[in-house]
Amino acid sequence: MLQLATTVRHIHNEGGFEMRNWLSNSKRVLLSLSGKTEIADKSFEEANDAIEKVLGMWWRPCTDELLFVQKFDASFEETSHPTKRQILRAVMKIFDPLCLVGFFVIKARMILQDIWRSGVLSDEPIHVAERAEWWKWVQKLQLLSSLRVPRCYRFASCSNRVELHVFVDASIAAYSAVAFLRSEFNGEFHCSLVASKTRVAPLKPISVPRLELMAAILGLRLAIFIKGELSISVCRRIFWSDSKDVLYWIRSDTRKFNQFVAVRIGEILQDSQVDEWRWVPTKLNVADDGTKWDDNMQFSSDMRWFSGPEFPRSPESCWPVSEFSQSHEEGTEFVHHISEGAEYTNRCSPDPTRFSKWERLRGAQMRVFSFLRKIMKLDARNLTMKTFLDDKTCESSEKLIFREYQEESFANEFLQLRSSVAKVNRKSSIFKLSPYIDGNGLLRVKGGIDAVEGVPMDVKRPIILPRNHRVTFLLVDFYHRKLRHQFSEISVNELRQRFCIPGLRTLVRSVAKMCQQCKIRRAAPNIPEMGPLPLERVASFTRPFAYVGVDYFGPFDIVVGKRHEKRWGVLFTCMTVRAVHIEISPSLSTDSFLLVLKQFMSRRGVPWRILSDNGTNFRGASRVLADEIEKIAVTEVEQKYPNIEWVFIPPAAPHMGGAWERMVRSIKSVLMNILPRRCVREEILRAAMAEAESTVNIRPLTYIPIETSASEALTPNHFLLGSSSGVRERVDRDCTSAVLSRNFRIAGQIADEFWKRWVRECLPCLTRRSKWFEPQPNIRTGDVVIIIDENTRRNTWTKGRGFDVIRGRDGQVRSAVVRTEGGLMTRPVTKLAKLDIDLANHVAVQEVCEEGC
User: Is 365 helix (H, G, I), strand (E, B) or coil?
Assistant: First the structure.
């Protein structure tokens, strides 16, 4: 090593790089590298407690050992309620690239899997059961700092014969592999831990033999990695497993097994030899510590996980001997049945539960027929099977499927009909159908319309099918899709032409309800209950236009000289008293709107809050105002733009701006009666706008009383001008200051009286909801939705998944952020139709997306 370090330093010096700050546990090494005594005195021979961090691991140079230093936080306090995020953060703090303490960390991963399976969110406290397991693990975690793992492999570098021993094991919760180097020195054998790998079992249930096979693959890959990375020459590899199933599979023909086992056995045989795999008793299997957690486990550097089992330190004659004989390898055929609980059957039809469509089941049956025609020598006496095989049409495949599953569902009826009585018991569910067996072995209805000529046999005597069988479900689903997902009665009529299915109409309706394409086509948004009115709608005793809703309408064609131009109306609506103010804008740009806004504020005052849609000119104006507030001094800002708040409704949500959208309609209705049909000059348009504004502002806000002519209905002009028409009492010019003071107080009292009337007459009218009376379930993050767009066809609507939700003041979700192929989109829940995606449905979601809505 000294020669290697010297060479490295020399190579860097040739390139102009000086290597400094050498670290070693030997003074002689440091003196040789640096040539300075004061640097050599900094070695770790005397400092027994000094530790250094090397490549993320803690290292004690004086003893050449690796340590684990764990820092505790709030998630390790037993009085706290840790969340899933905190537990994940705590587990990931254990940096162990070689998985030296994999037997300990795997328990934390099991707990995390249980937490994930419980369904709690990342920032929610975990359940009581998982919390108890977590505290047991935390108590053991405190002992982790007492472990000392030797960094160097003892005597491996100076031994002439080094072997790599890999132990693999699996349980229902995890599987692991741990590797040791076995070296011989001076007639003695030594074992050193190299690395390990641990994995939790998949969430999907899987048998223990298959997990043992996955552990064997894990051990093989670990051995290949170690042998490629070590500079020590390994003369032999030995893999130890306590699973006889895996060892028999390795010694058998892989063609006997299904794909899961065959692929993994093929990888094992490709990268290892059969004689490298040996059997070890479970009690001697070190990998067993990484799969089965023991609460009474004692942590120490001498435990067998670090030092290995006892038998590798003995001669090979003392090692465990496999209990299976060599006859299995030579001639005895061993077949391991992977599918537990499967029964032998002479059935020649595929399992219908493995298919999602009738066409695929029928196609598989035709391929079975094709296979049988090539390899099967038919018995002449089996006329029924010969008939099926000779017919190469789809109809023969269907009939064989029907016959086999009729025999499965109506086994007693077949026995009774084939007996000497040839009659079905009265207690049978198909007794009233008068069933009989035809020449193809099919169960049919003996009907009473045989005398009708020109009618197919299936109509006269339909095939009887069980209602609750998978084959019947696939058949009904096929007709449902064939008839383009139309009304149930069409499917019922078509099915009755060939089949007799009890409860057919109910079955057809249930299939239609489970059809994913029908769910998407009929999906409609669940509009939540109408929320409470916002503050700006009920802000009494505030000046008009303190809360303003703004929108554009138009355009209008005008004549300027000899050319035609366009003008737009800008409508400002007081959210409280429902008064309107109209300005004219020459364009839809941000600059033009800022000028219009300045004119409005000069006449009506600066509003406290502005509400609008997401027009680009409104967005630009809000940014300009925000920039102005940052640039101008605070005092000037308060004088020019005192606390202006801009609120944007969600995109494509005009109902959220109905307070000013309704005023646009009223203005347009007045303008239609005022403006001529041809183009007008701008001054005429401006006068018409003023007249429309005056007309809308004199509309009654409440019910018009007819009992007495003395009182008039409250209008917006009462708050703007003091009366509905704007005409006020004339004040004498020669009045004294006392009279002026009295008139001023009277004016204030009149304004207060208007507001009292508004509270008395207008506010109660806003209490009752006009629509959307019932609460609906909220859209949640992760829900699959369709974004409704009235401007496009339904089958082109965009699909997406909920990314985030936006709640109102009442806690109800009013809008949501949806992730689509084009990015994130914000839409109200009135434009989001939630899809009831059922992954267990027989129509795959991917196929539905391909077919469209």
Answer: helix
Sign of CA dihedral 625, 629, 632, 636: positive
- Strand-pairing partners, residue 753, are none
Residues 526-550: tens digit of each pLDDT: 788 777 788 888 888 888 999 999 9
The CA-based dihedral angle spanning residues 681, 683, 689, 690, taken in that order and rounded to the nearest 10 degrees: -160
Q: Hey, what are 529's tokens?
A: 């209950």
Query: What's the mean pLDDT in 338-367?
Result: 71
Q: At residue 380, does pLDDT exceed 50? A: no
- With contact defined as beta carbons under 8 Å apart, do 307 and 148 qualify? no
pLDDT-derived band at 118 (thresholds 50, 70, 90) equals: confident
Angle CA(342)–CA(347)–CA(349) in degrees, nearest 5? 105
- 324-346 in b/e form (b: 16+ CB < 10 A) is eeeeeeeeeeeeeebeeeeeeee
DSSP annotation string for 470-505: HHHHHHHHHHHHHTTT--HHHHHHHHTTTEE-TTHH
Distances (CA, A) of 571 to 95, 496, 553, 661, 662: 64, 63, 8, 9, 11
Query: What is the residue whose two structure tokens read 């449902």?
Result: 480
Per-residue CA distances from 144 to 57, 59, 82, 151, 844 (Å): 14, 15, 21, 17, 49
Q: Are 221 and 228 in contact (CB under 8 A)?
A: no
Measured from the Cβ of residue 727, the count of other Cβ atoms closer than 10 Å reads 9
Q: Judge if the upstream peptide bond of residue 555 is cis by omega within 30 degrees of 0.
A: yes
Q: Which of 735, 739, 738, 715 is nearest to 727 (CA)?
A: 715
CB atoms within 10 A of CB 579: 25
Asked if residue 567 lies in contact with residue 628, where contact means CB atoms within 8 angstroms, the answer is no
Q: Which residues of 120-135 are buried (b: 16+ CB within 10 A; e: fewer)?
A: eeeeeebeeebbebbe
- State pTM to two decimals: 0.48
The token pair at 364 is 């598989």
How far is 321 from 331, CA to CA, in rounded Å?
21
Contact partners, residue 82, CB within 8 Å, separation at least 6: 74, 75, 90, 125, 126, 131, 134
Report which DSSP code applies to 758. I
Cα end-to-end distance, the chain, whole Å: 70
Burial of 582 (0-12, 13-18, 19+ CB in 10 A): buried
Q: How many residues does the chain have?
A: 853
